[in-house]
Amino acid sequence: MSNNEIVWLILILPFIAFLINGFITLFTNFKNSPFSGYLNVASIGISLILSLYLALVGLDKNFDYQTASFQWISFGLFEVTMAIMLDELTLIMIIVVTAISFLIQIYSLSYMKDDDGYSRYFSYMGLFTTAMLGLVTARNLIQLFIFWELVGATSYLLIGFWYKKQSAIKAAKKAFLMTRVGDFGLIAGILFIAKEGSQYLDITQLYLGVQNGLFTENLIFLVGLLIVIGAIGKSAQFPLHNWLPDAMEGPTPVSALLHSATMVTAGVFIIGRVYPLIEYSESLSQLISYVGAFTLIFAASMAIVSNDIKKVLAYSSISQLGYMFLALGVGSYGAAFLHLFAHAWFKALLFLGAGSIGHAVHTFDMDLMGGLRHKMKITYSTMLLGTISLIGIFPLSGFWSKDEILIGVKSDSNILLLIALAGVVMTAFYMTRMMAKTFFGDFKGGHDNIKQEDLHESPNLITYPMIALAIPSVFIGFIFSSPIDLGFIEKHSMVSFLDHNKLVFPNYEYHSIKFDFMIASVSSLLAFIGIALSILNFRKFKLNIKPLNKLISNKYYLDYLYETLITEKLFYNGKMPQFPGMGYPLVPGYESTGEVVQAPKDSNLKVGDMVFVPGANCYSGSVKSLFGGTAQMIISSPNRLIKIDPTMGCNGALFALAATARHAIAGFGNKMPDVIVGHGVLGRLLARLAILAGEKPPIVWEKNILRHSGATDYEVVLPEYDKRSDYDCIFDVSGDSEILDSLIGRVRKLSLIHI
């Protein structure tokens, strides 16, 4: 079997799993069958084995990196080929994607076993893995863009997997729309390339075009800038970063997969894939480095104040991706992908650890944790190793990859080096804070006031993948970035391997990569300073500068800018007929449901509770509202809110109407309707209550034929088709005066018409 065929097989296997699980979900009654999970594990496991085989043969200097291509699209002079791009970068990325995905699939077997959408979950995961593998192996930019969009579409499905939660729906939409901003840049850049000739859509031909001076400097800058915008969106760099922390609404294994080795690294990958463009333009390189430098500090500052363990890790991902952008900007191509490789293992470990904690205490709020190290020793030990690696403490993986980046930054800019070193302190601070609040101190009871003696370690299928991830989190950095020759592998092997990519660097001359003892010492010292400051703050100082803390806790008000000022006020700007008290800009919506994000200490509500909001009115002054139920945030007195079962989700908005229907029936001695006039929400609720009571299903009259659908176990008819005039009880919820006038003739004497 050729290398080309092996790569296609790596791609196809998870896609087959997606198709089978999709069929199970849509057309069978085995939606919770364990088979779905084991199928994913098996298919991606085989893909992992094949990826490792390719990587081993890829170490051979005689390895054939060129693959066959075939014509895909052809009209006139425009031709597009489809092929596999098999180079050093591809080999690294397919190992990362398949290995991390494989371990997360095993973890999911236990984590998702009681979920009603079990097969659906594994179907989505199979498609997502296929999309990522297609993205990192694509040789044609159109082919790459298709998989790029498929990654975005499947991430939308995974983030919004628990679609009955309003917050999950919102997060999925936010991620999808914000990344579309970046995607517009990417497709625009691809179209500019296509304008120069369809042959340049082949990435190898694009490299040759840039290296042979076939494109103008302005065109290279423009195309490179547009592609970088796409990368900024996907990798959640400033200013398109807001979607990533909210993406935590998906299941924890999804968070681990998206934020460690797949979706968020796609932006870093595509910069690496078109690196000759970036390398050619000094101004573009500087832009990337400063975006990365700013983002790594910016995101770290929000991680310092966050109390949600998954959001701390999300902000950490944004910050570490900033390091990768910084490395690419200063020309440290190999160091950027070494850090991507190392980061994938310990960040996946930390997210899975967060899921293990959530499994035990039923919350991700660190203020409700504490003292867990005694009861969750495996989770604690593995997360401690992941934390130390992320901080960059010698000799764990993160130390070596971050050291390579700092060496590259040192040779480029002192300002950028200072920013990168400041990031080291901040990383150490927020990660130590996370571990202290979670595992040390007194246990706070979790979400449901759990007794400490009832706490327990997670099942083996959850802890075993964490142990497996802990091993590379400790050793893999030293193995692939060792400053000494280990015998079986040369020193600084991965950086050297990536920098020898003849397609990207055709004129590369081998140069010795040296370990910088000074950089290593300074970064280690700063890391320990960050740890010490965090411990002191946890035990004694409790540093809280209120104005600054408020600014950072509100994410520098960028969510307010994006969502409120732009989405809610501008989106609803238009014209409408005059109506008392109404006008534009309008925030529509009547009764609604929502998740509590802040509550007074003396109320019976807690953060995370799902509540029904009767007649929300969240705006005053220049902004009008039709009660404002569709607003992103509502401020209300706690005594107006009604706590509801979180499984109700957005259906809880029907709470008042359901109560109205119930009271309407109860007000007449539980007399059930024979006829209901109007098949709106209230009419449907009345009909279902009657059926639930065991009575004969009522007839529903509805003049609008378009509203006849959706009936369950009862009949909806046009009023004129019903000729009976002996009904005992009629409920009118239509408000139609023409029908009302005729109802008196449709009932027996001494019977009821309820309006």
Quick gist of this model?
This protein has helices at residues 3-27, 34-58, 88-111, 118-137, 141-159, 166-196, 203-211, 217-234, 243-246, 252-260, 266-273, 275-280, 282-305, 309-329, 333-361, 377-391, 397-410, 414-439, 460-481, 493-499, 517-541, 546-553, 558-571, 655-666, 681-692, 737-743, and strands at residues 69-75, 78-83, 586-587, 592-595, 610-613, 624-625, 642-643, 675-677, 699-701, 715-717, 727-732, 747-754.
Strand order of the largest sheet: 10-9-8-11-12
Kindly state the mean pLDDT as a whole number?
Answer: 85
Task: Find the CATH topology of the domain at 667-754.
Answer: Rossmann fold
Number of helices, where a helix is a run of at least 4 consecutive DSSP H or I residues: 26
Rough outline = globular
Beta-strand segment tally: 12
Helix content: 55-70%
Please report the distance between the alpha carbons of the first and last residues. 76 Å
The radius of gyration computed from the alpha-carbon positions, rounded to a whole number of angstroms, is 29 Å
- Biggest sheet descriptor: 5 strands, parallel
Keywords:
globular, alpha/beta, single chain, 3-stranded antiparallel sheet, Rossmann fold, 5-stranded parallel sheet, 755 residues
